């Protein structure tokens, strides 16, 4: 999951409290209540098949094999394209052949050597991660004094001459992701406007074992782009203490990177509806990842539970009325490139998107959905979620534009939902070397897979469309 | 805290469950009960002075200043010696001048470049930490296949020809520290005996954000010393999965290091007893640290709460009957060098050690003491701990040789105790780059300081000696 301005409305238990839980007390769905209840047997069949049947542990095993084989899959790399081919093969082996890929141009930002060394008041090497699309430093790096900035008001209130020629270090203390990620995204542009030569940010995370967190950032037009990197909570806090004691903190920052463009692909897998095949229920996750870690959590898990939906339905011979389309978005991390491309090229059929779902905030224990839509829409979805009380996944959280990739659809009124899950530790691992299979468990992935598959099936099979 | 065989008996909530809590129901201490109860006012005075008086936050502030100034303080380095001088100055400023240092020879093992790169079945750079006193590799490193070993029985059962020329990777899953640290300590020696060219170990930790944990290890006589390093839980588990799928895993390991000897010092600070000054109650922690992180938790916190004991008692004019001696042990991490040296050079007065205390397992919220001694001894200590119910630090856990440095005294029957504290996350940070001030809080350090000071004072002031 990235944090583009487009997606700042997604729900994260660790970032936005309290979440607004939908109250379905006065929903009046008439005969639809009975119709939805009639799916109970099929829901149980799917749950049994995944939790204790032939699919038990498969999501975890396939995800592990996938990330072990390819590792990180940054936008624009050969590894990402190979991983897309692999997923297509894996899908075909399941007898699903209605697969297309759609090409688009994506950025290829390649991280080179990155070092940050404090040499005053003492020498200390620090672990850093450059931010996405950051420019590089001169070969010998930038050597400058650090000025510690608490927030943008503090920056504004600081005279330009105190910033000029220095390296700005933003030290926002994590409260919510939405509140603090602005320093990662906009920090370099704002620091440069005040004359800084580079911009550092305390990693956007509530917990750390000296683990820096990368992420995207945006330069502003008319402002000199300056090198931008994240440092660990520990180093940021140490520098802050030194600075507050009146010590002069001097560092050398070396960053190397290249930025090019390349071609990548969205992948679309259709399980055709038996009645209204032109109508779509989309389930999705992104296949690209940051270049650190393995992208197991962000977003291998979300991609694999979306992959499992048509696979399981086909195996169980549960063909819904509408088409289920699994999409593996590409190049999400640098700004929803795949989703934007899909939206543009499928504009003429956007009215056919009946419901759009995405899992990109972890595949911990599922709790329900984060959904948009009018009251009727939410009533229907809440009624569907009642079928998941046995696995404790019946909560509907309200959000006007849920999701990351799909937020560019849901924010325009297309009804949809992202997976609501027990992801309180999501930002411990997000965009770090720690985003690996060790974050995932077979049990949680099975629960997510069963839940995701059954929800998508019911919505795709209901006698009525989801209202916009 | 290190993990020498000498110290394997210390208590850690995360490593040894359930701990044995002492039951003081049938203690018969006679008039001593009343005597101990009479300390209540003085205990409260100390607690107030630290929790809400002039010492509030001071332990944290001084510890932060100390670790920010010196960073890591590995055995044999100039930084360690400068940090010892600093502590002596800091102590003199408090009007405590009864300070001596005692020299000893210590190892100086210096870590150089360390890289581990998997290149089959795919390329991946891995974060590693060489283990203490490991030999280096050839300049271009060792390139070999990895053989994954679950435990020493598995190693024994594997034919030598399957180990010869390969790199052994031990993958013990953390249960308790004591149970799993043997693979870090003895793994290289045992692997070498079977013909391995290097030894890797899954870090001895229950949790990771791609964080490797270093630590000491021992070669065996008559066995070729081979390079030894720890890798992260994440990488160990990935290699294990690849290996179990039948993939050939090949890596290149480069390690450089030097091993010399140097001179360091134990530091002894005495607050002389008014009645029996030759009798000692020792409070202690070690001043050296590993070369990664800042040694804030291991063992800056323990050292500072021990430093605070004579400082606070002097400020409050609470002079006990016996002498309180604060000791900053040196070179603990590579094998209790400071403690062994002290034991040897103070052999003739060892009968004068009335009680010996050490904090080297974290300074999280204090819970009580981990203590050895006969029943009478434990009854007395348990009675003292009753005075700390208001801060929830009244638990006495039984252990025959508590402590790390002090275990070489307590295991020989000298009565003593280590700080029992809420350290369930201790091994998340232990011997990593994450051992920083971010693990510590002012509140917990204040609680530890107050508790440590008051306990030491009472024991040093009682009318009776602690029985051996």
UniProtKB/TrEMBL annotation, chains A, B:
It comes from the Eukaryota. This is Uncharacterized protein. It comes from Mythimna loreyi.
